Amino acid sequence: MTTLDNSRINTAVLLCAAVFVCGCAPRTPFERAVRGADEGSWELAAPGLLARLVDPDATVVIEPLGEVDDIGMMTAYATPRLRASRVQVDPFLHPIHAAPEGGTRLTRRELLEGGHLEGLELAWLDDALEAYLVQVNGSAVLDWVDPVTKASTGEATAIVWSHSNEHAYGSLGRMAIEAGLADPDAMSLDLLRSLHAADPDGIGLLMMQNPRYIMFRALPEGESINGSRGVPLVPGVSLAADPCHETGGILLVEPINGSPPRIGLVHDGGAAIVGPQRIDSYLGVGPEAMDAAGRVVVPVRVSRIRFKDVD
C-alpha cells in the first residue's frame, strides 16, 4: 500500500470520526457509501459524478435488485505483473496470444493442440497457471526479461483483452473440486497455485477442459488498461458486472457481513460474472492487488442508482 493510500485511509477515518462527533453521521447505506468513496479515484473515472451524487438538488433513485432475501456475491480481481520473454526460451514456454484475423470459434483444446495460434504469440511466461490466469483477469503488465540472461530489461508492456472464442467459461476451481482435489470451503487462488506446483500436468489437464480462450493486444505506452467493455479501469471504482447492467451504470453494493457499503461503476464484464447481483471489483495492478483480490468473497445486496429527472 502506498503512502498516498495510507494518507487517504487516515483522512477517511478522521472524517468519519468528525461526522460521528457532530451527530451528523449518514443514515443510509447510500450516504455511507458516497461518503466513503475516494474523491480522486472517482474524479479520474467519471469527472463530476461523485459531486452530483451528493448534490442536495439532485434526485437520486435507488433500485434494489431482486427480492429482499436475494443475496448476490462480490469477488475482486486485479491486473497481474509478470516476468515475460518476447521469445520462447526455457523456462518461458507458455504463450499469450493475439487474435487471428477474423477471430475464431475453436475451443481452447482445438486452438492449442491444433497449433492454430502459432505465430501470434505476444509473449511467453514461465508458469502455465499464470498464463491461464491472465485470461481470467483479462489484462496484465509484462516485465520483459533478456532471453539469454533472464535479467529484467527495465521495459514493460501492458496487454488487455482483445477477443474471446465465444465459448462458455469453465471454472478451474470448480473442476478441481469435482476432481476431488480440494474441499469447496477451502478453494482459493493460493490453493490452486499449490495444486499446480505439486502436479502441473494434472492441473494442466483441467485447464484444457475450459473451452473458453482469451486473446490479447498490447497497449501503446501511456494508454490506460481497459476492461472488456473498452472502458479504462480505475481501482476502487470499476466493477465487472453482468450484461444486464449498462456500461457506466452506478451500483450500490451492500455487504451483509457488516463491511461498509460502497458504490462503483460498471466498466467491465466477464464470462463468470453472471446475474444482476454478481459483482467483481477491480483493485489495481501488481502482487499486492492480486493478493487482496484473492481474499474477497463477500455476500452482498446490489442496487442500481440513477438520477431522476425533475421537471
In terms of topology, how is this protein built?
Layout: H1 3-22, H2 29-36, H3 39-45, H4 49-54, E1 60-64, E2 72-79, E3 81-85, E4 94-97, H5 108-113, E5 121-125, H6 128-137, E6 139-145, E7 152-164, H7 172-178, H8 189-198, H9 200-208, E8 214-218, E9 238-241, E10 250-255, E11 262-268, E12 278-285, H10 287-293, E13 297-307
Parallel strand pairs: 2-12, 3-6, 9-11
Antiparallel strand pairs: 1-13, 2-13, 3-5, 4-5, 6-7, 7-8, 9-12, 10-11, 10-13
Helix pairs in contact: 8-9
The secondary-structure class comes to alpha+beta
Number of strands: 13
Rounded mean pLDDT is: 89
**In CATH, what is the homologous superfamily of the largest domain?**
Barwin-like endoglucanases
CATH topology (fold) name of the largest domain: Ribosomal Protein L25, Chain P
Silhouette: globular
How would you describe this protein?
This protein is of the alpha+beta class and 311 residues long. The chain folds into two domains: 28-76 and 230-307, Beta Barrel (Barwin-like endoglucanases); 78-218, Barwin-like endoglucanases (Ribosomal Protein L25, Chain P, Beta Barrel), CATH 2.40.240. Helix content is 29%, strand content 28%. It contains ten helices and 13 strands. The chain has helices at residues 3-22, 29-36, 39-45, 49-54, 108-113, 128-137, 172-178, 189-198, 200-208, 287-293; strands at residues 60-64, 72-79, 81-85, 94-97, 121-125, 139-145, 152-164, 214-218, 238-241, 250-255, 262-268, 278-285, 297-307. The protein has a six-stranded mixed β-barrel. A six-stranded mixed β-sheet has the order 4-5-3-6-7-8, covered by helices on one side. A hairpin with a 6-residue loop joins strand 6 and strand 7.
